[in-house]
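Exercise: predict the fold of this chain.
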Amino acid sequence: MMREIFGEGLKKKIKSLNSHWTNRKIDSDLKDMRRRKYFDLFYPLVTAEVNKAVVLMRPRRVGKTVILWQTIQKLIDDNIDPDNILFLTLDTLILVRQSIAQGLTPYRNQIHTITYDNGLEFSEHQNISQTLSANIYFAHPYSS
């Protein structure tokens, strides 16, 4: 059972998290949510041609994931191919006990930076950084 989750199970989970690959838009329940107040400040940071991490820090349950989905829709509206937009929650990799580096390796060319919280599950960040050739940043705890 674990082997199935390890390979094909993870691929299916990633595909299910990225329904915009098939639908060419985000799910309507997310699309219909009101745009977050800080969207207009956040979006230019995502689309800037700089090699820096964008950190979105807020308390739990205030809409960080919603703003990410709204950003995905705006990227699609701005003619970015949905196949080039990856939404991935690192919790997915941790839940199936797959190494983060192994799970992200297929997306290596699209990953330039990774921003973590300060959990122990990210203690191998140096190996992950080297494997993926990505810069690693840590969110400042209790910042909002």
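Check your answer against the key: Residues 1-6 have pLDDT under 50 and may be disordered.
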